[in-house]
Write a structure and sequence with these properties.
Layout: E1 4-7, H1 12-18, H2 24-27, H3 31-35, E2 41-46, H4 49-57, H5 61-71, E3 76-81, H6 94-106, E4 111-114, H7 125-133, E5 137-143, H8 152-165, E6 169-173, H9 181-194, E7 199-202, H10 210-219, E8 224-227, H11 241-250, H12 259-278, H13 293-296, H14 300-312, H15 319-332, H16 342-356, H17 365-371, H18 384-391, H19 409-416, H20 423-431, H21 433-459
Parallel strand pairs: 1-2, 1-8, 2-3, 3-4, 4-5, 5-6, 6-7, 7-8
Helix pairs in contact: 1-14, 6-7, 6-20, 8-9, 9-10, 14-16, 15-16, 19-20, 20-21
């Protein structure tokens, strides 16, 4: 049996370890080597990369994608899409979802992994449909979590519904690394018995399970696993690509990975890792094994962001209190899987509860929207006291919230006018209005400075 590898260093490993702060220039020189390494795909876009490019790196994410496509012509480029949330933290109307996928594929994306934070498949339907329409691979992702309402039968039903929806593969997405080896074996086997599609498994090394989890998943029939080159592996990232390539080969599984190329790739990223450690961007805490995550279920990106939030409040010493509060908030909210945007909602609310010293004294607007039903159907009922505190006597919305949203793309395009140079700019603005506007201003200023420099050189 042949096992295929998706490399995460350009997206999830970067996001989990250093909050997606790696600029394109830092990894550009190694992309051609990566292109010949034998990967099934390179996960390089989506998640927090779009936000971080605009907010912190002063990069146009669309330009970044086109540059990666040029350097990786033989490798499938993969992105993570939050269903109706796209790359943001709220639901967008269908016209925006369709347009975003159209331009994602048009600019170089080959595989779109599509999930909904609540596993409410109404919220991935349009994204799957448009991905297929544009000729890309639609990978439906099941967000794995544990709770009284998340059962093997429930996951099988989700896989079957995704297959009927037309997805090309099923991804079991274990955001917090809490899926143990036996759970992985049982779940992969159950999904393989339920659907006739390739099964991808995604996990994190947070709890120390990941290597064992992948071995058992492969034994159960998994077709693709997500790994990170070793210098950006471990902790809240994925397990090491090289280690698993060696181990699976010894166990009699075949793969197409070029071990010499992997060595070259790792040698390239090792100095970057050392640099991020020395300047504090990479916090050693996120590299450690943390079995407490089995209780808190905190994903890698969420943990690094929690630490950043507490640093900003000079309250890092209260991290343990926040971690203890997270399961309580999650239970109150109906056991949502802790994946974006739910991980942010639960995490921020837990931080607020701890720092204010009183639970739900202040409630985030996103949590209020969630309780109103704007994100979809919770896996279990929301705590009745919390619901009443937010809604009063009002009943939550139970339909597909995107059906209530008016088209947004053309109005936004008209509003931006000449500020938007292309339709990709309009999409950037819709996703992150203030941040995109600031980036557009930065871009204009940089070009004006370049023009002045060019004129001066000519005059000389």
């Amino acid at each position: 049996m042949k096992i295929q590898f998706t490399e995460t260093v350009l997206r999830d490993a970067n996001q989990s370890l250093i909050a997606t702060r790696m600029p394109f220039a830092a990894f550009e020189p190694i992309l051609e080597t990566m292109d010949g390494a034998g990967y099934y795909s390179a996960e390089c876009w989506g998640g927090a990369t779009f936000d971080s490019c605009l907010r912190y790196l002063n990069e146009d994410p669309w330009v970044r994608l086109r540059k990666m496509k040029k350097k990786l012509p033989n490798t499938k480029l993969q992105m993570l899409l939050r269903g109706q949330n796209l790359l943001g933290y709220k639901h967008y109307p269908d016209d925006v979802v369709r347009k975003f996928i159209q331009y994602s594929v048009g600019n170089g994306i080959d595989i779109i992994r599509i999930f909904d934070a609540l596993n409410d498949l109404r919220n991935i339907q349009i994204a799957v449909e448009e991905t297929k329409k544009r000729g890309a691979h639609a990978s439906g992702a099941i967000c794995y979590t544990t709770s009284p309402v998340h059962t093997l039968a429930k996951y099988q039903a989700l896989a079957k519904e995704m297959e009927a929806m037309g997805v090309d593969s099923i991804c079991i997405k274990d955001m917090a690394g809490i899926m143990g080896p036996q759970e992985a074996y049982d779940l992969v086997k159950a999904v393989k018995e339920t659907v006739s599609l390739p099964v991808v498994v995604h996990t994190h090394s947070t709890t120390g399970f990941a290597f064992m989890t992948y071995l058992k998943a492969v034994e159960a029939g998994a077709d693709v696993i997500d790994t990170a080159i070793s210098s950006f592996s471990g902790g809240t990232s994925q397990p090491a690509t090289e280690t698993l390539a060696y181990a699976l080969q010894q166990m009699g599984f075949s793969h197409s990975m070029n071990l010499k190329a992997l060595k070259e790739i790792n040698d390239f990223f090792q100095p970057l890792r050392d640099e991020y450690l020395s300047n504090g961007l990479l916090d050693p805490k996120v590299l450690a094994t943390n079995t407490d995550a089995l209780i808190y279920q905190v994903p890698g990106g969420m943990l690094s962001n929690l630490i950043a939030q507490l640093k900003a409040q000079n309250a890092t010493q209260r991290l343990d209190e926040v971690l203890q509060e997270i399961p309580s908030v999650r239970k109150d909210l109906g056991y949502p899987p802790l994946v974006t945007p739910m991980s942010q909602m639960v995490g921020v609310q837990a931080v607020t509860n701890v720092l204010l010293g009183k639970r739900y004294q202040s409630i985030g607007k996103e949590v209020k929207s969630y309780v109103r039903g704007e994100y979809g159907k919770p896996p279990a009922p929301i705590d009745s006291d919390l619901q009443k505190k937010i809604l009063g006597d009002e009943q939550p919305f139970t339909g597909r919230f995107a059906d209530t949203l008016a088209p947004e793309f053309e109005p936004a395009k008209a509003s931006l006018g000449a500020i938007a140079r292309c339709e990709e700019d309009v999409l950037s603005y819709i996703a992150f209005p203030k941040i995109a506007e600031k980036f557009f201003q930065y871009r204009q200023k940089q070009e004006e400075n370049q023009c002045s420099y060019t004129i001066m050189k000519i005059e000389e």
